[in-house]
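Example: G-protein coupled receptors family 1 profile domain-containing protein.
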Amino acid sequence: MEFVLLGLTQNQELQRVYFVLFLLFYVVIVLGNLLIIVTIKYSEVLNSPMYFFLSYLSFVDICYSSVRAPQLIADFLVVRKTFSFGGCMAQLFLSHFFGCTKIFLLTVMAYNRYIAICKPLHYTIIMIGCMCGRIVVASWVGGFMHSIVQILLTIHLPFCGPNEIDHYFCDVCFVVLIMSYVIILVSLRTHSSKGHRKALSTCASHITVVIIFFGPCIFKYLRPSTTFSEDKMVAVFYTIITPMLNPLIYTLRNEEVKNAIRKLGSRKMTLGVK
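Written out as structure tokens, the predicted fold is:
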């Protein structure tokens, strides 16, 4: 009927510190990604497919973190961290749904960079507005199909043993994403050194996000299958830390986004004065 979550620590003093820390992280995640969404929506400059996909990635980051972060934060304030069976299955479904959708969007963004770098003359024809919308819808559908399969397989398992959970995690294959960047790097061999620098600069932010998101996954699944106390912290890293870093990575390395944020702020101040 219910599960007992062991949490990150049993130390009450650390729990109070973690409560404040993770609450701050979650607020930054929501506000940072909302800033990206609003900036792209109201900017006249950020209208390319890449920013279209980035706005949806920011929205998925908010949803993905909201599935786990509020529960994690609330558990720091209670002694017995119980979770109902239905709530656990709902969290599992939503975690797979938003997590898989995010991976599909990262793959789509890699494909978008591949077209922009390797086939620049065909870019506007291939990545037209209606096509971008269909790709985003396909990402959501793909995430849903993956999640519904996972949950249907899970609920038919017998749950009659120990009900204490010391860890949570979901994974999905990212071969397509890696293949996209392999194609980009191979194609760069035919470009000039200036073209190399421009292409790598274009992909730098996205590659950074991909490494930060998938690095912990690779660490967890390539090591021997034994209990490892650091697993929980690794899972928290890409569940909470990565969505918090994404807005910073995409803004600090992108002059267009920074200028758009400044213009949006100036416009709001002007309207406030009037």
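The longest strand covers residues 2-5.
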